[in-house]
User: Which sequence fits this backbone?
């Protein structure tokens, strides 16, 4: 695999050099309104030389490449000084001066020509947008928000989840046609220092006019005036005119059955120059999972968080723009408190030669978390330099208790039972900074980066274990462990590089340094050995420090300092061919890694390693209507030195952990190919294939004592782990009027898992190879006959096939499938009904209680009053009371089936008052 990747790299570099042509020289700029900064389309622009003679004329237009309005572009005849002059009806004349200093400059980015308006009162024109859901312009997709029927009171996340080809995950990550959206913008500007969940969860959907998804040129490209391979795939949410300037907000309060409640407040002051946002949220709906009937038949109504969760949070954010959309100063602050009640039941099967091990565990966890997060950002884009500076501070206090009961079986033979109870109290804070500054030197660029972080953790835990064994020769084992752990992590990084411009190509030479230091102090004390200890209490410490240290478990206590230095010399090359839409990016780093570990347990150990790694990366993009992308990477790293220490840890009576000084360096290979195509009827086709391989993967070899049921785990280096995956997706409008929309996605994954396992009676570790296939289908059909009605049918499923040639292995065939129907209807008396009905079926699981068919029904009835400012809602969540949460996982060592408790069904009545105020013009 290594030879294939290097051969590909050697072929692409000469080819890119042959394709590089003599460089033409262009000036690119914008004509904008002096007050609003909006681009002016149709302005007359002239290029003049130093003697004020006209060289060329043009008219400003929209540019898909730069994704901006008011763009002009002139070809320059050679080095020298020039003037660009612009005129437009209703504005005074404006101009800007520029110079071409080097023949290696392919493009010069001129300052904006800011035209001053000649004031006249003009009649306003009313433009009615069509109800077409989406249009495509090259790689840019524009969604019309008014073409989607949403439940009253929906936020931005509900609208995003309804967009064709769009997927929104529970943690706020957005994917469009399988491609990850890196940043969420509002009116073309970063939303509160890059925190997309603020907009997704708090920005009302009714304020949105359209959503545009495109590749945005980065700060480096705008600084240099050419493609610098720093594009970001972004989603730009454009607000309606009445919500773009002024004040807006909403206040929602509700109460329901089973003691459910929620209170949410959101307010924002919005202008072209600044934004101020404040919000608060109090609920016990498990992370705002209210009756979610707004996602158009998506599975979000099934993705409820595990357990019961009560949340109290408040935030304050401020953003002030500094001249352009990529220059701002901002702060984002959040304080949050959660209370969790989690219950779970887990069924495991571990593949062993001579008979599989089975485990059944029930667990209860009550947890309370309080946290604070603050992020400060300063970003500036000037004519000759850019800088971005970020400072973050985070604090978390986590405490709670847990109880569990588990049993271990060999086949149907009972081996042991373990009862545990524990209490923990963890405090952690983190401080981090990140600075990035670029300086333009005509066709070249100097870059300096620096970043660092410090993390401090104090974790206190009390754990009581009571183990009973079927083997009468083995006595019961009671332990009461107390562990006050302290951990400090520090990282410092610096990077200095110089870019040599070659027209549309560039060559960068750089050096990077990284220092890491991790200090861990983890003593363990056996409170059950304290003389006269109270066995009814497991969380009481001795009265004196001396008495505590007399019961220190030296065998399971350790103190460690882990340090590492990386010296990286790198060469990178990129090239861009506008005629064929081609981009090539090659990154060639050589990493000199120096790591050492001081480890103290029963004895002091010193481990030292020096390595040199070559970790190349290559990306090739080609085509316009058909867009092809090839990615290939090779990366190598040392294993964790802590895992290479010689030790034996038996703090858990049923799990013994060992170190392994013989671990090898890990090598990872990745190749992926993807294609995107936009066709007729707003059709989108995207396909992807990827291959991943890991050599010397660190796996936990298992040796199982088939008499007592005790597992001994040791990290080992194994080969043969690889997996491949492929997907094919297609979406398009149907019918003459475009009222039908169809989306379909097929996925297939194969995983070749390799692990090691043995039993006490057969101590030779054997390679356990498991073949894991997963096939998936996702189909969604949407019909919107008019503004008042919308219907979505959503079906899909996943099928798992797990097999192995290992003796005694039972082939696993299991699957999940779902069918959902979602509708939004306008009813008489200004009522709106939104409802979804979903059937979820699971088949083939070895734990029969998990083979279920569940019907999940949510509904919402709403009505607006006071000209839409007051909204009343009646919501029903899991009306049929059949929602459950299960998960399934398979690897080379075994399989795991887990059930978690979920929020019970409820009905809720809520009132929402929403307002907006616009300044008088």
Assistant:
């Amino acid at each position: 695999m290594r030879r294939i990747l290097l051969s590909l790299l050697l072929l692409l570099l000469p080819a890119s050099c042959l394709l590089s042509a003599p460089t033409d020289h262009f000036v690119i700029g914008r004509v904008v309104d002096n007050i609003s900064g909006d681009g002016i389309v149709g302005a007359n622009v002239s290029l003049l030389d130093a003697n004020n003679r006209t060289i060329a004329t043009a008219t400003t237009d929209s540019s898909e490449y730069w994704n901006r309005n008011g763009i002009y572009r002139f070809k320059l005849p050679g080095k020298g000084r020039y003037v660009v002059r612009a005129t437009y009806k209703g504005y005074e004349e404006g101009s800007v001066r520029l110079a071409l200093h080097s023949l290696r400059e392919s493009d010069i980015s001129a300052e904006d020509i800011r035209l001053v308006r000649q004031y006249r009162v003009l009649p306003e024109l009313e433009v009615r947008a069509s109800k077409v859901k989406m249009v495509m312009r090259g790689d840019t997709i524009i969604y019309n928000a008014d073409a989607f029927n949403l439940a009253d009171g929906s936020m931005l996340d509900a609208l995003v989840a309804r967009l064709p080809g769009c997927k929104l995950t529970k943690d706020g990550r957005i994917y469009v046609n399988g491609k990850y959206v890196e940043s969420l913008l509002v009116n073309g500007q970063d939303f509160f220092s890059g925190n997309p969940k603020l907009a997704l969860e708090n920005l009302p959907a009714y304020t949105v006019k359209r959503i545009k998804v495109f590749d945005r040129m980065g700060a480096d490209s705008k600084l240099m005036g050419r493609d610098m391979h720093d594009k970001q795939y972004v989603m730009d949410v454009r607000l309606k005119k009445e919500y773009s300037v002024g004040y807006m907000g909403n206040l929602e309060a509700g109460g329901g059955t089973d003691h459910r409640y929620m209170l949410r407040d959101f307010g924002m002051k919005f202008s072209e120059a600044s934004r101020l946002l404040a919000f608060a949220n109090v609920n016990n709906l498990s992370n705002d999972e209210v009756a979610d009937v707004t996602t158009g038949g998506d599975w979000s109504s099934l993705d409820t968080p595990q357990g019961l969760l009560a949340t109290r949070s408040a935030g304050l954010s401020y953003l002030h723009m500094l001249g352009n959309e990529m220059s701002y100063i901002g702060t984002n602050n959040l304080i949050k408190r959660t209370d969790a009640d989690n219950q779970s039941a887990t069924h495991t099967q571990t593949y062993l030669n001579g008979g599989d091990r089975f485990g059944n565990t029930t667990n209860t966890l009550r947890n309370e978390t309080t946290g604070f997060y603050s992020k400060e950002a300063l970003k500036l884009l000037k004519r000759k330099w850019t800088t971005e500076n970020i400072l973050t501070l985070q604090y978390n206090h986590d405490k709670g208790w847990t109880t569990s009961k588990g049993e271990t079986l060999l086949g149907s033979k009972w081996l042991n039972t373990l009862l545990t109870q524990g209490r923990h109290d963890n405090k952690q804070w983190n401080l981090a900074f990140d600075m990035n500054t670029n300086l333009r030197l005509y066709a070249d660029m100097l870059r300096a980066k620096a970043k660092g972080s410090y993390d401090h953790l104090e974790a206190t835990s009390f754990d009581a274990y009571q183990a009973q064994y079927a083997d009468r020769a083995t006595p019961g084992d009671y332990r009461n462990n107390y562990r006050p752990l302290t951990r400090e992590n520090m990282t410092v990084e610096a990077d200095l590089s110089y870019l040599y411009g070659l027209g549309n190509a560039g060559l960068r030479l750089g050096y990077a340094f990284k220092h890491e230091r991790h200090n861990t102090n983890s003593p363990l004390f056996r409170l059950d050995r304290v003389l006269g200890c109270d066995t009814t209490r497991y969380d009481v410490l001795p009265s004196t420090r001396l008495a505590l240290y007399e019961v220190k478990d030296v065998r399971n206590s350790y103190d460690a300092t882990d340090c590492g230095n990386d010296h990286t010399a790198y060469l990178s090359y990129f090239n861009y061919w506008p005629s064929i839409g081609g981009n090539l990016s090659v990154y060639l780093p050589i990493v000199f890694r120096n790591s050492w570990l001081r480890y103290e347990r029963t004895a002091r150990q010193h481990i030292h390693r020096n390595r040199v790694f070559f970790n190349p990366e290559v990306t090739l993009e080609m085509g316009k209507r058909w867009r092809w992308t090839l990615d290939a990477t090779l990366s190598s790293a040392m294993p964790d030195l802590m895992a290479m220490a010689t030790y034996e840890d038996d703090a858990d009576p049923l799990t013994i952990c060992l170190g392994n000084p013989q671990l090898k360096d890990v090598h990872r290979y990745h190749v992926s190919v993807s294609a995107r195509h936009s066709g007729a009827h707003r059709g989108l086709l995207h396909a992807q294939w990827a291959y991943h391989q890991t050599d010397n993967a660190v796996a936990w070899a298992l040796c199982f004592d088939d008499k007592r049921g005790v597992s001994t785990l040791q990290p080992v280096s194994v080969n043969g782990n690889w997996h491949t995956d492929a997907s094919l997706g297609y979406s398009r409008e149907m019918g003459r009027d475009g009222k039908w929309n169809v989306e379909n996605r097929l996925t297939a994954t194969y995983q070749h898992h390799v692990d090691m396992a043995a039993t006490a009676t057969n101590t030779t570790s054997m390679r356990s190879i498991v073949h894991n296939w997963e096939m998936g289908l996702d189909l969604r059909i949407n019909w919107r006959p008019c503004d008042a009605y919308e219907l979505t049918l959503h079906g899909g499923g996943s099928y798992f096939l797990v097999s192995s040639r290992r003796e005694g292995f039972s082939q696993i065939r299991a699957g999940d499938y779902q069918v959902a129907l979602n509708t939004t209807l306008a009813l008489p008396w200004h009522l709106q009904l939104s409802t979804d009905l979903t059937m979820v079926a699971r088949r083939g699981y070895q734990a029969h209680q998990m083979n279920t068919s569940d019907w999940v029904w949510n509904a919402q009835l709403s009505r607006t009053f006071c000209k839409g400012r007051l909204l009343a809602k009646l919501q029903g969540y899991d009306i049929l009371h059949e929602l459950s949460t299960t998960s399934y996982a398979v690897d080379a060592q075994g399989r795991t089936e887990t059930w978690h408790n979920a929020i019970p069904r409820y009905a809720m009545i809520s009132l929402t008052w929403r307002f907006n105020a616009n300044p008088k013009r």
Notes: Confidence is low (pLDDT under 50) at residues 18-22, 121-130, 288-302. The longest helix spans residues 2-19.
